[in-house]
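Entry 12.
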Amino acid sequence: MTTVQDVINSCRSLWPEHTAEQWDRVGLSVGEPHAPVRKVALALDASLANCAAAQQLGAQMLLTHHPLLLQAVHSVAATDYKGRVITELIRSGMALYSAHTNADIVPDGVSDIIATRLGLQELQPLVPAEHDSSHGIGRRGRLADPLSLQEFVDRAAAIFPDTVSGLRVAGDPQQKVEHIALCGGAGDSLLSNELVLQSDVYLTSDLRHHPAQEFRENNPDIALVDVAHWAAESLWLEVAAQQLSAALPGVEFVVCDIKSDPWIFSAHKQGASK
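Predicted 3D structure (tokens):
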């Protein structure tokens, strides 16, 4: 009989918890380690919709990328979102586990998957991990053949699931690009990174107005590509499910099909350029 602890052990083998950033809160948040598991649902977020989807799938465990309890809470009463999620998980007997920055830094992690899907070669982390220089936050690589920025963005748009915001781009569509830096998830903290500044494009998520504007003023030849956070990181889920299925063939791993991107629709002035 496979247990929650068995799944945790496989997760720790793939994404060691001690390699997560110090501020991160990965691991088991809800559940009994010795409870039996036949099916595990994977999702980016521990949302109420994903909890309901996991229940409908008949899962005994929900594995998410984003930790539900990343920010401190002082109550788990079912009067707010996190309390309702925890209440529902306990009521249904479902365990909750998360692998976050420890799943970002590894080969075949979030940024590595994006880089591979984009066809990048000669990959290296933007911020190497102390324990292993092949691990780390973000990736930089080279395209096999230079592309125009427009061609590169079209390639990027094809690998990500569609969202309301699509891909937002700052740069000349005709400029040639070859060296690409990227960071899956929020990445404007790396705008001053040495490898980013040596690249033709920096692709990431959650770019804010002022940091992006200042970066472009100082580095007009480096294009910025902003991808929806959910879209960028969701590519990891299928790979994680495949890795865990290979490690635990007696357990079924299923990715929830809920889109947890918070933006529902957009509006543009009639005739305006999009």
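Annotation: The chain is about 30% helix and 25% strand. The chain has two domains: 4-101+233-255, 106-227.
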